[in-house]
């Protein structure tokens, strides 16, 4: 299985019609866009890490019970430079391409040190995000590439730095009911104090007539200063409630000096991330209307988090759920020399892999300096999570474990920022790629699964039925590939209540494993 995932993908630039088995609901109308690595070698040069592969965009369009598929490589500047040179010439997360010694290395050094963080690749392979009415392929760098969601053509590149002072930004924004987009980034520019920045792009930001970028209406809402100037926290996502942003400052840290001098130290950017098991994890709660942070100091033991599930407010508490790890060795599993091993060898090599655990943290907003020491301040009755006041006035948070062995979580997004009951995700069993889809009931602490031998589903995406009232009234969509040569890739449609298969649409083309994406409903 590891070998087929690490193979080069290919484009299907013109739409092809899938063969549907079962019945796709007639109300399911729209396009599921997906993004992920699809090209792992150029010419005779190869990438080292799965997260380095050049972005391949997929679209699955649902119309009147039928499904059409197409895919195209993102025409980023990185892609174009690599293809023109017929080799990899732009560095990625786990693959460092060293400067040509004939070039002016002193000028390069001066540029890197002045900017602190070097100019990154624009290979946006992680997600598809929306700003205004524009759609962008995104990763975690200062560049995003706008795409046409209908044709998958690359429209053009945007640079956050031209609109807001950011070096890095997440590929996992949030959207409110009005269509505004909230995101978070890191600012390490010039001589100012480095900080984490939360920003907003309004729903009416797009100006297609005058071809103005949506980021022209970006607004900084607030910022959080680094605890350590030279070692900021890595973050892949964040939480949002009706009134607050929840930022987890974890001890998985970026070494800025090492990053800025990576070329000259002979290391890749991935090696600039380090987990400090002796540090603590801090929870910042910021009012997204006033920009002011809650003054109490909430913290927990050292952990690593990539994906938040949901967050909401309940009776004076902020509740947030996320996928946690005991350490950061998840990234090591995705080096291609590991992924190309046979399953038995892969398991042996990665036997110390820290499994994902879905955990709930609860922060009592009513806590204050005079709260009784040694007391659990959480008064909610539906969780075992604790928040205990310490002698120094800080609050130690102990999580409630909801589920083990699940990643790539998804919910009915209309319940984002609200109290919810269900989440969906991909089950991981000693592999960097999941082989099951699970639905977890938080109230009963039970789950149901979908599984087929030698099949590997992507992140499950929930689409609600028209007029749905119940939280799980809808379908789950997932792109599935198989190591069985007799099973073509297919789009899976599950009943979101039961995870029973409603339909599958077999794709007469090569489909590659992806990471994240979003569903765009058809215009009414």
Notes on the protein architecture:
The protein has one domain. Helix content is 8%, strand content 40%. Strands 2, 33, 34, 35, 36 and 37 form a six-stranded antiparallel sheet that branches. The model is unreliable at 100-116 (pLDDT under 50).
Q: How many H/I helical runs?
A: 7
Task: Report the portion of residues in β strands.
Answer: 35-45%
The share of residues in helices is under 10%
Give the structural class: mainly beta
* Number of E-type strands: 38
Instruction: Give the low-pLDDT segments.
Output: 100-116
Shape: globular
**Total domains:** 1
Q: Please report the distance between the alpha carbons of the first and last residues.
A: 41 Å
What keywords describe this structure?
about 525 residues, mainly beta, six-stranded antiparallel sheet, 38 strands
Short description:
With 524 residues, the chain is mainly beta.
Mind sketching the topology for me?
Elements: H1 2-5, E1 12-17, E2 19-22, E3 30-39, E4 41-42, E5 45-46, E6 54-63, E7 66-73, H2 77-85, H3 105-115, E8 127-131, E9 134-138, E10 143-147, E11 154-159, E12 168-169, E13 174-175, E14 181-187, E15 195-201, E16 218-225, E17 239-240, E18 244-249, E19 252-254, H4 256-260, H5 262-265, E20 273-275, E21 281-287, E22 298-300, E23 304-314, E24 317-325, H6 336-339, H7 343-349, E25 357-364, E26 386-389, E27 395-398, E28 400-404, E29 406-410, E30 422-427, E31 436-441, E32 446-451, E33 455-457, E34 461-464, E35 474-482, E36 490-495, E37 501-506, E38 516-521
Parallel strand pairs: 22-27
Antiparallel strand pairs: 1-7, 2-37, 3-6, 3-38, 4-5, 6-7, 8-9, 9-10, 10-11, 12-14, 13-14, 14-15, 15-16, 17-18, 18-21, 19-20, 21-22, 23-24, 24-25, 25-28, 26-27, 29-30, 30-31, 31-32, 33-35, 34-35, 35-36, 36-37
């Amino acid at each position: 299985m590891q070998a087929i995932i690490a193979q080069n993908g290919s484009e299907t630039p013109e739409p092809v019609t899938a063969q549907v088995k079962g019945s796709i609901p007639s109300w399911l109308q729209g396009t599921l866009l997906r993004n992920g690595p699809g090209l792992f070698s150029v010419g005779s040069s190869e990438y080292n890490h799965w997260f380095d592969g050049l972005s391949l965009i997929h679209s699955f369009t649902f119309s009147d019970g039928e499904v059409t598929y197409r895919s195209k490589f993102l025409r980023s500047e990185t892609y174009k430079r690599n293809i023109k040179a017929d080799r990899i010439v732009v560095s990625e997360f786990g693959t460092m391409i060293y400067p040509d010694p004939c070039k002016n290395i002193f000028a390069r050094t001066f540029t890197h040190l002045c900017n602190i963080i070097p100019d990154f690749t624009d290979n946006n392979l992680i997600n598809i995000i929306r700003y205004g009415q524009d759609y962008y392929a995104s990763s975690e760098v200062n560049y995003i590439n706008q795409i046409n969601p209908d044709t998958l053509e690359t429209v053009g590149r945007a640079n956050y730095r031209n609109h807001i002072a950011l070096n890095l930004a997440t590929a996992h924004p949030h959207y409110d009911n009005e269509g505004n987009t909230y995101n978070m980034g890191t600012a390490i520019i010039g001589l100012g104090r480095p900080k984490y920045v939360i920003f907003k792009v309004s729903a009416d930001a797009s100006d297609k007539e005058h071809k103005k970028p949506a980021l022209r209406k970006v607004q900084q809402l607030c910022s959080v200063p680094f605890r350590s100037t030279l070692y900021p926290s890595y973050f892949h996502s964040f939480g949002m409630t009706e009134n607050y942003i929840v930022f987890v400052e974890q001890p998985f840290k970026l070494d800025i000096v090492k990053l800025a001098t990576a070329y000259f130290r002979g290391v890749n950017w991935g090696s600039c991330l380090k987990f400090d098991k002796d540090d603590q994890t801090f929870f910042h709660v910021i009012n997204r209307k006033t920009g002011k942070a809650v003054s109490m100091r909430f913290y927990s033991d050292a952990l690593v988090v990539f994906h938040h599930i949901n967050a909401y407010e309940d009776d004076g508490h902020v509740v947030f759920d996320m996928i946690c790890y005991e350490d950061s060795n998840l990234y090591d599993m995705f080096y291609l020399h590991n992924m190309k091993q046979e399953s038995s060898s892969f398991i042996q090599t990665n036997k110390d892999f820290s499994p994902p655990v879905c955990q709930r943290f609860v922060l009592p907003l009513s806590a204050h300096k005079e709260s009784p020491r040694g007391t659990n301040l959480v008064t909610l009755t539906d969780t075992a999570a604790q928040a205990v006041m310490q002698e120094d006035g800080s609050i130690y948070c102990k999580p409630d474990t909801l589920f083990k062995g699940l990643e790539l979580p998804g919910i009915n997004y209309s319940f984002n920022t609200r109290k919810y009951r269900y989440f969906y995700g991909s089950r991981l069993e000693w592999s960097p790629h999941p082989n099951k889809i699970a639905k977890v009931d938080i109230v009963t602490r039970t789950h149901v699964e979908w599984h087929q031998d030698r099949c590997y589903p992507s992140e499950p995406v929930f689409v609600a039925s028209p007029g749905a009232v119940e939280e799980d009234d809808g379908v789950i969509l997932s792109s599935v590939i198989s190591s069985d040569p007799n099973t073509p890739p297919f789009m899976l449609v599950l009943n979101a209540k039961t995870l029973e298969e409603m339909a599958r649409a077999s794709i007469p083309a090569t489909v590659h494993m992806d990471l994240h994406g979003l569903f765009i409903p058809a215009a009414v």
